[in-house]
Amino acid sequence: MSVMINKLEQLVTRYRELGIDTQIDYEKFYLYSLITHSTAIEGSTITELENQIMFDHGVSLKGKSIEEQSMNLDLKLAYEKAIELAKLHKPFTIDMLISLSALVMKNTGREYNTALGVFSSARGELRLLNVTAGIGGRSYMNYSKVPAKLAEFCERLNSERAKASRMSVDELYQLTFDAHYNLVTIHPWADGNGRMARLVMNMLQFEFGLIPTKILKEDKEEYIKALVATREDDDLDIFRRFMADMMEENLRNEIASYLYSIGVQYSGEKTKEGREKLTKSREKIVELLAENGKLSAAALAGKIGISAKAIEKHLARLKADGIIERIGPAKGGYWRVK
Prior knowledge:
With about 350 residues, this protein is mainly alpha-helical. It folds into 2 domains: about 25-245, Fido-like domain (Fic-like fold, Orthogonal Bundle); about 270-335, Winged helix-like DNA-binding domain superfamily/Winged helix DNA-binding domain (Arc Repressor Mutant, subunit A, Orthogonal Bundle). About 60% of the residues lie in helices and about 5% in strands. It has 13 helices and 4 strands. A two-stranded antiparallel sheet has the order 1-2. A hairpin with a 6-residue loop joins strand 3 (about 325) and strand 4 (about 335). Helix 6 (about 145-160) runs antiparallel to helix 7. The chain is globular.
């Protein structure tokens, strides 16, 4: 196994030493976050807080479409089932994947009429038609090859899982990243392939006792580019590098956020330059917003000297951690430091 991952094991160790994953309701809120970001990549605008309200209180969300709400509720059921199966170390089979896909697409799937007959994405049935990867892009494999490739995927994955106890944390993460890429490349379903690939990746991580990988909606563009580049260049290391770098950054951000929340400055394994990006920059953002909550990401980037994209990630994390809140719309509103 070619390992392209660095430092994840020590970051996971640090994460657990701090007890971040032992906080009250940590598992519930982390799961809600996984669901929110996964559906956001597919176009959902529902926030983590809104999902919490909908999941915990059964409240319909005003201003949100039924399709968006169904997408999130269905994915929650699918994750709960996946976690249950992960705890039981059930072998992966085509039938298992179909049953999980049926939960993911339960209320947003539809029937397709083809020359070979009718199939339903709402029932998780494998596609009976070909799928293009966008205008001008290469098509995914012919539908007739999907069952055999999916059976091969399950067989290989089960073989890899049997060796999990002898793998390092870094190797286990790579196994899960590979499973994500391989499943989405087979593209077994007419819809829901991205959500299923992320669910299977997280399901394996739950099984292995890892911190599940969260692909933030802010990283959507780079995530899609990594998938496309990996497929076009036929180089799995591209996706591995992207996922490892993103996971490392997210772990560092969560460690920094946790320490910030308890009044401790982050001084972990990161280099001086990295600490400035995660701790000093974050503190500067809060300081600047306390003075002027109407500063844009671009304005903050200019004052701090990092990219606007990095600012947006910090803002998203600060908001999720309850350090700042957005008052009013994206345009015309302002940030308030709590």
